[in-house]
Every structure is written in structure tokens, then in C-alpha cells.
Specification:
Layout (H helix, E strand, L loop, with lengths): L1 E7 L2 E7 L2 E4 L3 H12 L5 E5 L6 H4 L6 E3 L11 H9 L6 H20 L25 E3 L4 H15 L3 E4 L1 E9 L2 E9 L10 E5 L3 E3 L21 H6 L4 E2 L4 E7 L4 E2 L3 H4 L3 E5 L7 E2 L8 H10 L33 H11 L3 E5 L17 H9 L7 H8 L1 H8 L10 E10 L2 E2 L12 E3 L15 H20 L11 H15 L7 H16 L2 E2 L1 H16 L1 H4 L8 H26 L9 E2 L27 E8 L2 E8 L10 H11 L6
Parallel strand pairs: 2-10, 3-4, 3-11, 4-7, 11-20, 21-22
Antiparallel strand pairs: 1-2, 5-6, 8-9, 9-10, 12-19, 12-23, 13-14, 13-18, 15-16, 15-17, 17-18, 23-24
Helix pairs in contact: 1-5, 1-13, 3-4, 4-13, 11-12, 15-16, 15-18, 16-18
């Protein structure tokens, strides 16, 4: 590590120089750091807003899934078969799918060796189960907090190897010049009001961007409050985005933020809405169903068809209970999401009530339910009582989770909403997780490596695979790149000029209100429901705020600078993401994945839904294409290209062995 001091526009900057810097302290970030250290690359550092914050450490589900190659039982599986499953998610590059499939075993084994309690049977096989979009039993779990356990184990390993961590550092600029990274400028959150120690620059030719997804963009979000992301900052530096239209939305509790998937739905809770003051309680799901059996069968399916899926929306109004089963594209379970969303748009609050059966029935007629629902509850010994009694029987830890956070499901209703949960898109990378900016390696959710659909739990595998490959490339190909201080004046001068102008606006803080309004605008225009008119209106409003950012923002002192930079990152993100959505519609895009696009020539998925729900279901017209987008000088430029196919087999041993001896096969194709 080398330390220096700079003064730019009369502003002092502390400078640290490293061979590589990891931005972000989640499971992907710590794996990158640990891999670099294992590769004997010691001159590295990690920066983080808060080591204990972020999605990896603060999220989970009733049984958080890790997706990998199957190596138990008698089911046939292979790296290529897994790659084909990932590739089948549409709009995904085949080389990335193959890398994630091939890396799943070493990454999983590393976690197991680090002590993660993935279950093994008596013979030592790591057993699995099926998850969504999974043709085999590839999923496994270490419990509700799988990603938290991963992060802690990888952190412990990296710290024991000597990792240097700079905590409480908020990224405010990715410093780049001529499409090469120079470093990262941070606001020192330990002393934001001290002008002598306010800014820290981490100078490095190689940066692992493990900052997570852009969690601050939406108001209705199940991302932990500690997750912010820095994708907008990467866009500002010229990094390209990929598949930005593709998100996952689903039902989640608001306080605390947590997915209500799995057994929370399978115990058949009662859906209740109230006025804003909590009065005027009523059940609203029955308004959309001719009979209770179909309604309850679809609620049950939400347990493992958790993300809103346009394919699982159409047909719900015409089926009987026995037709609702399996992973049927016409199952209609996503109708539940739409109904909840529309109820909240009326200004009402929505709750799950586990203390009473739906319609206040004394007992559920289990024989009338779909065969899948009926058989599952019978096998679980849960064909009795109230939802909370069934939940206590089937998954008591799911009850304990809320009780430990101040919500007793035995006596309290749980407020929910349709929330954004995960970005399948992100920053564009190649099969070594290199971006279009030389030296920038986005990993984890910051990287846009998924397609329209993906198997549940594949994001955890992707984060480990990508961070491992990025670290290997840096260690083998970029270890000895010089770390000079040239070309810093221009990019740093720009941001410090902007900061100086903002510091002159000390006339009362308005940043918090601007952030709240921007998030609400994004949830309305860029969430699960998408309408071209609303998107274009939100796009124009966002662009106007960006163009007038310095004049618009007011602060009450240097302590507000953190929020100022958060707002700018958020607005840049929204501008690029909304631009991608508008371009998708212009390109003829229809409802797919976790988004319903209004179409004037469409049909309503259910006769009781309003006309603005009319849509045309995507039939795979763009499945073999990928949208990429860059933003330069305030203008977004989207392009469409064909997906890269899965590479042909390259497994003749003698040839692979020879090149492996030469360079470890860390090479670019």
C-alpha cells in the first residue's frame, strides 16, 4: 500500500494506492478478495459503506436457495446441461452460462470447506431439491440465512489472509479516463464534516465492482434498508448496462422487509385490506374468484412461484382447482400479485392474517383444493386449524423470524406489498466479468449476467462464479500493471466543481424529500406494471432533475453530502433504466418475465381487472437478443445484439492440459 496526498481545486484528498480494490463487502466482494489473496496478490484492499450492511448479509427467505450442479442421487446432470438451463432463461449469453455452470462445483465446495452447513445424507452426498425454472434437483440451502453465512465465512477467510478493509467509505465517483479506471473517490463517512479528511481516493488499475443491485431506486422494495448500490456511478463513468428491463417483483412484508414466499403462502393465509388508518378491514381476493377452492390453490402456488411472472398470469379466471398445478404457464398464480398491487394503488394497506382462515371459515374444505395443494398439506400433516397453526407445524422458524423482529403472527397481521427484489440485469460483462471500461469488473448483482428467467438461487452461484473468475483474471493478467497518478485532474476536477456549487446551496435541506419522490415515481413507472406514457413522463422528469441537479439540490451543511451523492446515483440509475424500458417498448417488447406492459391491442388477464392491465404476452420474439445501453453526456444509446451461443465442447485433454500449463487457461476469446 502506498499513501499520498493531493490538492485539487483547493480540496485536500487522501490517496491510497493498491494493485486491486474491491468495492463492496457482500458474498461476491469477499469471495473476490479471498481469491486474490489465495492467488498471492497481497496488495489489495476492500472499501465498504458498512461491512455489516448490504443484501448478502441482511436478506434471506424461509429457505434461502443456492443453485449448483447436482451431484447426488441417480439423476443425470452435467456442466453443459446446467449451462443449457441457465441459457434457456432467454436473453442470456451462452459463454457466461457455461462459466457459471462449470464454476458452480468449485465455488460450492469452497463454501462447504469453509464450514457452510449444506445438508449431506449418510453417504456424504449433498442432497438437493427442485426450485423454480429447474428441471433437476440442483438446489440446496443452508437455511434462511444462506447468503449471510456465505458472507461471514468468506470474510473470516479473507481477514485471516490479511485483507485490508476501509469501512465507512461511500463511493461518490468511479474515476476513469479514456475508458480506463483510475480509481474510486469516496466520501469518508467517519468524518464528512471535516474538510481535511472528507475525501479519500483509492487509486488502482483493477476494481472489482461488488456494490450490489441498485436498491435505492424503488419505494416498494424488499431490499434491506442497508443496501444502496452504486450502479448509477458506474453508468456515469461510461459502463454499459445489460438487460436492465429484467427485474423480479413479488409479495413481501414491509416491516421487516422479507419475502413472504414458501410456507408463508402454502399455509393459506387470509388477505385483508384496510384504509390508511387501519379501519374498514375487508377480504378482497374473493372478488376475483368464483369459488374459494381456486383462490386458495393459487395462493398456495405463490409459495414456490413467488416472483411475479407474466406467463403465470393469464388463464386464472377460467380454471378449476384441479387444473391449477405444477409449473403450468397458465396456472394463474401471479394474479395474486396483480390484485394486491391494485389494492394498494387505491390507497389501501394490505395484510396477511394468519390467525383466521380465509373468509373466516371454521375449517377449510381440503378435498376441494387442487391435487398439488391438497397432497402437499396432507403430507406435511397440516390439514387442520388456522394458518398460524399450520405454519407452526410446517415451519416454526418462519414464525420465529417475525417474532424476533417484533411481529407476533399469532396475534398480529403482517403488512405486505408487491416489492422489487432482484435485478436480473445490471452492468454488462464478458465471461471473465470484464466490463467495457478497462480494469472494471462488476460481480454479484451489480453484473447483468442473468436472462429474463433464472432458476431460484442461481444468483448466489453467479456471484461466486463471477467474483472468482474476475479475481483469477486480475491475479494472472493484471497483477503488474503500473499504478501511476496521471490523468486524475480532469475527472476529479469535475466532481469537485459540482460539490463546491452544491456547498453554496446551504439554505435548508430538500434532498430527503427528493429521494422519496424519485423512488415513488420509479415504483409507479418502472415497477411490475409498465405503461409507455408513464415511463416517458418519468423519464422526462428524471432528465430534468439531472440537468438541473446543482441548482435543484439544497443542503443544510456538509453532513448532507452523503444524501446528495445518493440522490445523484439514484437519478442516473433511473434515467438509464427507464431509457432501457422505453426502448424495449419501441422495439416491440411485450409482457415477459416479471413485468406486465400495457398494450392497447392486448387482453386483460382476468375479466375483473381494469383496462390498463391489457397486455400481449411475449412469445419469445426477443429471446435470442440482448439489449445493452450506455449513457454519455446525458444521452442514452441502446443497442440490440444476438446472444452469444454456448461455446462448443473444448475438452480434448492433451490440448487443454498444454494451454493450462502455459497460462492456466485464463485467456480472452
Amino acid at each position: 500500500m502506498e499513501e499520498k496526498n493531493l490538492v485539487i481545486r483547493d480540496i485536500p484528498v487522501k490517496v491510497y494506492c493498491f494493485s486491486a480494490v474491491i468495492a463492496g463487502s457482500g458474498a461476491a466482494g469477499f469471495n473476490a478478495a479471498d481469491t486474490l489473496l489465495r492467488e498471492n496478490m497481497k496488495d489489495i484492499a476492500m472499501i465498504s459503506e458498512s461491512v455489516l450492511a448490504g443484501t448478502s448479509r441482511n436478506t434471506g427467505s424461509d429457505k434461502q436457495t443456492y443453485y449448483k450442479l447436482s451431484f447426488s442421487g441417480d439423476e443425470k446432470d452435467s456442466v453443459r446441461a446446467l449451462a443449457e438451463t441457465l441459457f434457456a432463461g432467454q436473453s442470456m449469453d451462452g459463454d457466461i452460462a457455461l462459466c457459471e455452470a462449470a464454476s458452480s462445483v468449485p465455488c460450492f465446495n469452497k463454501l462447504a470447506l469453509l464450514g457452510l452447513p449444506f445438508p449431506k445424507n449418510r453417504y456424504g452426498e449433498y442432497v438437493g431439491y427442485k426450485t423454480d425454472h429447474d428441471p433437476a434437483r440442483r438446489a440446496t440451502s443452508a437455511g434462511p440465512y444462506t447468503s449471510k453465512l456465505m458472507t461471514e465465512a468468506l470474510e473470516k477467510s479473507a481477514r485471516e489472509s490479511g485483507l485490508v478493509i476501509f469501512d465507512r467509505m461511500q463511493i461518490i465517483k468511479l474515476v476513469a479516463h479514456n475508458e480506463k479506471v483510475l480509481g474510486i473517490l469516496c466520501l469518508n463517512l467517519n468524518s464528512p464534516e471535516d474538510p481535511l479528511n472528507r475525501y479519500v481516493l483509492f487509486r488502482s488499475p483493477s476494481i472489482v465492482w461488488a456494490t450490489g443491485g441498485p436498491a435505492t431506486m424503488f419505494s416498494a422494495s424488499v431490499y434491506p434498508g442497508s443496501q444502496n448500490g452504486a450502479t448509477g456511478i458506474a453508468f456515469e463513468a461510461g459502463a454499459a448496462g445489460r438487460n436492465l428491463t429484467e427485474w423480479q417483483y413479488g409479495l413481501a412484508s414491509i416491516h421487516p422487509r422479507w419475502n413472504v414466499s414458501g410456507t408463508y403462502m402454502q399455509v393459506l393465509p387470509r388477505f385483508v385490506s384496510t384504509g390508511r388508518d387501519g379501519n374498514d378491514a375487508r377480504e378482497f381476493l374473493p372478488d376475483f374468484f368464483a369459488g374459494t377452492a381456486q383462490m386458495l390453490s393459487l395462493v398456495f402456488l405463490k409459495g414456490y412461484q413467488w416472483p411475479f411472472d407474466a406467463r403465470k398470469l393469464f388463464g386464472a379466471g377460467t380454471q378449476d382447482a384441479d387444473a391449477v398445478s405444477g409449473d403450468s404457464k397458465a396456472a394463474g398464480s401471479s394474479l395474486i400479485d396483480i390484485i394486491v398491487f391494485l389494492e394498494t394503488q387505491k390507497g389501501r394497506r394490505v395484510f396477511l392474517d394468519f390467525t383466521h382462515n380465509p373468509l373466516l371459515a371454521a375449517e377449510i374444505d381440503y378435498a376441494s383444493l387442487s391435487a398439488e395443494c391438497r397432497d402437499y398439506l396432507a403430507a406435511a400433516g397440516a390439514c387442520f386449524g388456522t394458518p398460524i397453526e399450520r405454519l407452526d407445524t410446517m415451519n416454526k422458524p418462519a414464525v420465529d423470524f417475525y417474532r424476533d423482529r417484533g411481529v407476533d403472527l399469532h396475534s398480529q397481521m403482517l403488512e405486505i406489498a408487491v416489492c422489487v427484489q432482484h435485478n436480473n440485469g445490471g452492468l454488462a460483462v464478458d465471461c471473465w466479468w470484464r466490463s467495457n471500461i478497462e480494469g472494471l469488473f462488476p460481480v454479484g448483482e451489480a453484473a447483468g449476467t442473468h436472462g429474463v428467467f433464472r432458476p431460484g438461487g442461481s444468483a448466489l452461484n453467479s456471484g461466486q462464479a463471477g467474483s472468482m473468475r474476475a479475481a483469477l483474471y486480475i491475479a494472472r493478467k493484471r497483477k503488474n500493471i503500473s499504478n501511476n497518478m496521471e490523468q486524475l485532474e480532469i475527472p476529479l476536477g469535475e466532481i469537485f466543481a459540482e460539490i463546491s456549487s452544491i456547498m453554496d446551496n446551504e439554505s435548508g435541506q430538500n434532498v430527503s424529500a427528493l429521494i422519496t419522490a424519485a423512488r415513488e415515481r420509479m415504483s409507479m413507472a418502472g415497477g411490475m406494471f409498465r405503461n409507455e406514457t408513464l415511463i416517458n413522463r418519468a423519464l422526462a422528469e428524471t432528465k430534468k432533475q439531472l440537468d438541473n441537479f446543482v441548482e435543484m439540490v439544497r443542503i443544510s451543511g456538509a453532513k448532507d453530502l452523503s444524501l446528495v451523492f445518493r440522490l445523484k446515483d439514484l437519478l442516473i440509475c433511473q434515467y438509464v433504466y427507464l431509457s432501457a424500458m422505453a426502448d424495449y417498448i419501441r422495439h416491440g417488447g411485450k409482457s415477459r418475465g416479471s413485468a406486465l406492459y400495457y398494450h392497447k391491442d392486448g387482453t386483460r388477464p382476468h375479466p375483473a381487472l381494469p383496462g390498463e392491465c391489457a397486455a400481449l404476452l411475449d412469445q419469445g420474439e426477443l429471446a435470442s437478443m440482448i439489449q445493452e445501453i450506455t449513457c454519455k453526456n446525458g444521452t442514452c444509446s441502446p443497442v440490440w445484439r444476438p446472444v452469444r451461443p454456448i461455446p462448443p465442447a473444448d475438452d480434448f485433454f492433451e490440448n487443454v492440459w498444454r494451454t493450462y500449463r502455459e497460462n492456466g487457461n485464463v485467456e480472452v476469446f
